[in-house]
Specification:
With 353 residues, the protein is of the alpha/beta class. The protein contains eleven helices and twelve strands. The protein binds pyridoxal-5'-phosphate.
Length: 353
């Protein structure tokens, strides 16, 4: 720490991303990326001619991309905000809509707590039910901004759209942010509700279902006033936050939606296969609507399974938080990767490997 850092940041605990090892070919099931490449349309869109144009700034209004998203989700351009990863949208929302603090689930995306601390907010982390589900009535009639990942992470469990609507409807004085990073893998999107409720902000990402984690692209849909607020923050921090190539890639990705939705279907099938096999081996697996599963086996520590998988070239995500330390979060890769995963884990629990 330098002697220049503001006092208020001295205690800040930053978010710790999953490992991105460069040293060896792992089967990478630790950061919920897609195992599939971007569509041919995306690869074509990022041509060498476009690389040559990198001397020019990108369109700060991101018109073409926002129009494509608006068209796909049946809203207007004025209802769409795009950003450098959806983490940027979370950042802006915690910065801008948190006058009265914020509440979010105790077990959820780790970044929420980081942003709450970054902005010195009053916040409360609501415990999950015993079975790791979110009790939606904990978030109705709240006194502050509400943030919920739906499906939740790292549990993978989704709330129904009716439960989301109850939360939004009961909080007219608070912004409700629904983080739908994993919605394409089995959740129901709250985007249609943004037409009915002016306190709802839905954000999604191109990082998971649309194979663009390295492109850094997220989007939000909400009432025009909320979008204008987000634009104001963007123009007060980094107006060209999305680079030219990512704008083109994102637009092409939206236009090749069928390809990505077919990939989501494949991932759901591989997820069902993996859950079935793990349950046959005596694992407890939570009910996932995401591209990952959360699993433990009684009698074997989560840490041991994580380490053993690693020694065998398979990376998964292990969290040390007391309440979930016996679990591992396993991203669903290709069917072949999951077959390898199952055979390795089977020999680990049988004392081999
Ligand atoms: C991955 C993830 C994000 C962030 O995605 P970006 O790569 O920043 O777009 C946001 N919320 C949740 C719950 C996530 O898992």
């Amino acid at each position: 720490m330098s002697r220049f850092l503001k006092q208020s940041f001295m205690e800040l605990e930053a978010y710790v991303p999953g490992e991105q090892p460069q040293d060896m070919e792992y089967i990478k099931l630790n950061t919920n990326e897609s195992p599939y490449e971007p569509s041919d349309e995306v690869i074509k869109a990022v041509s060498s001619d476009e690389v040559k144009k990198l001397r020019l700034y990108s369109d700060p209004e991101c018109k073409n991309l926002r129009d494509a998203i608006a068209n796909r989700y049946d809203v207007k351009r004025q209802n769409v905000f795009v950003s450098n990863g959806s983490d940027d949208i979370l950042n802006f929302a915690f910065m801008a809509f948190s006058e009265n603090g914020v509440i979010f689930p105790e077990i959820s995306y780790g970044f929420y707590k980081v942003f709450a601390n970054l902005y010195g907010l009053k916040y409360s982390q609501i415990p999950l039910n015993e079975d790791f589900t979110i009790n939606s009535s904990d978030y109705t009639d709240a006194k502050s901004m509400v943030v919920i990942a739906n499906p939740n992470a790292p549990t993978g469990i989704a709330l129904s759209i009716n439960e989301i609507e109850d939360i939004v409807k009961s909080n007219p004085q608070n912004l409700v942010l629904i983080d739908e990073a994993y919605v394409d893998f089995g959740g129901e999107s709250a985007i249609p509700l943004t037409k009915k409720y002016d306190n709802l902000l839905v954000c999604q990402t191109f990082s998971k279902s649309r194979s663009l984690a390295g492109g850094r692209l997220g989007f939000a849909i909400a009432s025009e006033n909320i979008i204008n607020d987000l634009e104001k923050i963007k123009y007060s921090t980094n107006p060209y936050s999305i680079n030219r190539l990512t704008l083109l890639a994102g637009e092409a990705a939206i236009k090749s939606d069928d390809y990505y939705m077919a990939n989501c279907k494949k991932i759901i099938e591989s997820r069902n296969y993996t859950i079935r096999e793990l349950k046959n081996m005596g694992f407890t697996v939570l009910d996932s609507s995401a591209n990952f599963i959360f699993a433990k086996k009684d009698g074997i520590s989560g840490e041991y399974i994580y380490q053993k998988l690693r020694e065998n070239g398979i990376l998964v995500r292990h969290f040390t938080n007391e309440k979930i330390k016996e679990y591992n979060r396993i991203t669903i890769g290709t069917y072949e990767q999951m077959q390898t995963f199952i055979s390795v884990i089977s020999s680990i629990i049988n004392g081999g490997n």
